[in-house]
Design a protein that fits this description.
It is built from 6 helices and 14 strands. By secondary structure, it is α/β, with parallel strands linked by helices. The chain has a single domain, classed as 3-Layer(aba) Sandwich (Rossmann fold). The strands form 4 sheets. The chain has a 7-stranded mixed β-sheet with strand order 4-3-5-6-14-13-12. Strand 3, helix 1 and strand 4 form a beta-alpha-beta unit. Bound molecules: glutamine (GLN). The site of glutamine has 11 residues, from helix 5.
């Protein structure tokens, strides 16, 4: 839903997109700050009525099992799942990536998925060796410093999924070497790492471009 507004000269210009950050648990504030640098209106969201005011949503890093429970309690799981399935733009970092995956390995049995990404992720994949891990990655042609905190990685992708980044193959990377850590499918973007924690808003800009592209299609 994009409204128009007029600038000082009275020309009609597109209003900035409105992007929500799911604010049930996790690093909500950090995502709001990153989005605010990207010329959008960013706001925390926790009620179902608020979803219809948005052009896209960010599912933050945090704890996917807790967020899953809260999504059910706040009656957001089904509406958000349906919206994402219908093409609503969504970006998930870390726990957000887990929630957007269709299949999770090493999850809790009662953990619910929002879905939208035809991928299989392994929860706490890096955490089996080390809790956090940092590396520079090539993300669609740009070098990004990636911070992983008890992160998942992607173990399998369907043909519809574009792989945007993998962990470079180095001795320090151990089992993580070559693992897929950023993906896109249609209007859904996910990173196993946390760009919201490094003050580098390029991943958020990529998502904002996806949101702008999707609103222009309407
Ligand atoms: N391990 C967490 C989970 O399963 C994700 C960690 C994070 O978001 N930093 O949800």
């Amino acid at each position: 839903m994009r409204l128009t507004t007029s600038n000082k000269l009275g020309d009609m210009v597109a209003a900035p997109p409105v992007i929500g950050v799911l604010a049930l648990q996790g690093d909500v504030q950090e995502h709001l700050i990153s989005l605010a640098k990207c010329d959008v209106t960013a706001r925390p969201v926790r009620r179902v009525e608020e979803l219809d005011e948005l052009d896209g949503i960010v599912i933050p890093g945090g704890e996917s099992t807790t967020m899953s429970k809260l999504l059910v309690n706040f009656e957001l799981l089904e509406p958000l799942r349906a919206k994402i399935k219908a093409g609503f733009p969504a970006y998930g970092s870390c726990a957000g990536m887990i929630l957007l995956a269709e299949t999770v390995l090493d999850g809790r049995e009662d953990q619910e998925q929002l879905g939208g990404l035809d991928v299989t992720v392994r929860r706490n994949a890096f955490g089996r060796q080390i809790d956090s891990f940092e590396t520079d990655l090539d993300l669609a042609g740009e070098t990004v410093h990636a911070v992983f905190i008890r992160a998942p990685w992607v173990e399998a992708v369907s043909g519809e999924v574009e792989v945007l980044a993998t962990v470079p193959v180095t001795a320090e990377a151990g089992d993580a070497a070559g693992r897929i850590v950023a993906v896109r499918q249609g209007n859904v973007l996910a990173t196993a790492f946390h760009p919201e924690l490094t003050g580098d808003e390029r991943v958020h800009r990529l998502f904002v471009d996806m949101v702008r592209g999707s609103t222009e299609e309407k």
